């Protein structure tokens, strides 16, 4: 039933754009799951076809990296980093620079969603105790987590998928995306410091500092060794997902911490979202409509295989349906992108996610965790610095990709 598949596909991505169903407590994950159930119940997709539709290596790699990030969380590392930032000497702008640096570097090697999930509450508490407005620091935290994650193939969910589908090398990816990601961190700091300059002008108080939480040195050592071993494995012929899974399994071998505690830190809803969208977009690809559309765009020279097309497409799509659903959709309907398009898609879709609060999961998580801590970090709060930092970083990234030959301008 091609017409039903097309309708379900269209409604699913409308749901991705809205973020939830009006009047219902149904978010993006719930929307994707309901859509998948409709396809299964109407026999538009067979249960036996689910395995072939889901990109298992990508899900395995993402799961394993979540275990690694959870190990750092179990050591209290994220909370410790947030507390060290808010206890540091210096002006509010120095604290902001530290926030951007720590968030960006951590997000380059760990899942950025977990970084902001863990650090947001303590960052809110710490800066409030210093008598400061937490909103510019939240803008720096979210913006830097996206910018830093753009540098590596394991920095965020969409990069993981792109790396797996494109068969990209870890170090080549870093060479292609590392420099503009680093420049994007500088731009993030500059944009937040400029836009929020009045809020950052007040001196930071020294009384009532956040207590430095305990750091489990043994768990931190395990997590650090696991990260180092994983990066070394990326230089071997072993498939990335298998190497990451081996590291994850070794980390679960513990006499002090129950494996259920670590597994409880895995972002299961995100994995479910990926799985559902894989099936839904695969079903739509089977209707042939996507292929016809791609052929039509190719005939008009509008395929996103150039910076001039990819950059505005990423800016629009990432801030409407979200950069993760957008990447899943594009890779499902575009049969054979050139290698340069993979680098451009990863870099530009990630940086474009900083424009609006709906552009990336990291932004949404930051806002939700801040609200749970009693701090309202709303749409306009994010956009104040998000718009200039995104436009500037996208311009730099576009020039980098074009001038260095990673991706043609036209």
Describe the protein in words.
The protein is an all-alpha fold and 410 residues long. It has one domain (53-403). It is 71% helix and 0% strand. It has 20 helices and no strands. It has helices at 2-18, 28-41, 50-53, 56-74, 77-87, 92-109, 112-129, 135-149, 157-166, 170-195, 217-233, 240-252, 259-263, 268-285, 289-299, 307-318, 323-333, 339-352, 361-372, 379-403. Helix 1 (2-18) runs antiparallel to helix 14 (268-285), helix 4 packs antiparallel against helix 11 and helix 5 packs parallel to helix 7. It is globular and about 65 Å long. The mean pLDDT is 89.
Rg estimate, integer Å: 21 Å
Helix content: over 70%
The general outline is globular
Secondary-structure element order, N to C: HHHHHHHHHHHHHHHHHHHH
Note the beta-strand portion. under 5%
Alpha-beta content class: mainly alpha
Total discrete domains: 1
Number of DSSP strand runs: 0
User: Could you give a short account of the major beta sheet?
Assistant: none
Residue windows where pLDDT falls under 50 for at least 5 positions: none
Cα-to-Cα separation, first versus last residue: 38 Å
Q: Tally the helices.
A: 20
């Amino acid at each position: 039933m091609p017409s039903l598949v097309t309708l379900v596909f269209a409604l699913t991505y409308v749901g991705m754009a809205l973020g939830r169903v009006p009047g219902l407590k149904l978010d993006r994950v719930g929307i994707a799951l309901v859509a998948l159930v409709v396809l299964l119940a109407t026999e538009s997709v067979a249960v036996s076809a689910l395995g072939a539709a889901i990109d298992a290596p990508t899900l395995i790699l993402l799961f394993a990296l979540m275990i690694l990030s959870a190990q750092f969380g179990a050591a209290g590392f994220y909370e410790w980093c947030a507390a060290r930032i808010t206890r540091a000497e210096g002006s509010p702008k120095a604290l902001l620079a530290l926030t951007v640096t720590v968030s960006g570097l951590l997000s380059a090697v760990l899942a950025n969603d977990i970084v902001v999930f863990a650090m947001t509450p303590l960052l809110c508490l710490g800066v409030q105790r210093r008598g400061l407005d937490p909103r510019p620091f939240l803008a720096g935290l979210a913006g830097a987590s996206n910018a830093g994650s753009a540098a590596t193939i394991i920095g965020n969910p969409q990069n993981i998928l792109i790396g797996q589908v494109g068969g990209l090398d870890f170090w080549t990816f870093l060479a292609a995306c590392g420099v503009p990601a680093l420049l994007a961190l500088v731009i993030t700091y500059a944009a937040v410091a400029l836009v929020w300059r009045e809020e950052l002008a007040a001196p930071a108080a020294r009384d009532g500092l956040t207590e430095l939480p305990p750091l489990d040195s043994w768990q931190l050592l395990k997590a650090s060794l696991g990260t180092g071993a994983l990066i070394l494995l990326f230089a071997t012929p072993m498939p990335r997902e298998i190497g990451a899974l081996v590291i994850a399994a070794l980390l679960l071998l513990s006499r002090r911490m129950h494996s259920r505690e670590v597994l409880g830190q895995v972002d299961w809803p995100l994995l479910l979202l990926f799985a559902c969208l894989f099936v839904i977009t695969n079903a739509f690809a089977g209707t042939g409509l996507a292929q016809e559309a791609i052929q039509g765009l190719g005939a008009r020279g509008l395929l996103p295989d150039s910076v001039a097309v990819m950059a505005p497409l990423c800016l629009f799509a990432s801030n409407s349906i979200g950069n993760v659903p957008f990447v899943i959709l594009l890779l499902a309907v575009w049969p054979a992108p050139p290698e340069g398009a993979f680098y451009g898609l990863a870099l530009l879709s990630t940086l474009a996610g900083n424009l609006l609060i709906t552009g990336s999961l990291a932004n949404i998580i930051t806002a939700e965790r801040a609200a749970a801590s009693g701090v309202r970090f709303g749409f306009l709060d994010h956009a104040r610095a998000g718009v200039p930092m995104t436009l500037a970083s996208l311009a730099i990234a576009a020039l980098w990709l074009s001038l260095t030959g990673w991706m043609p301008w036209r």
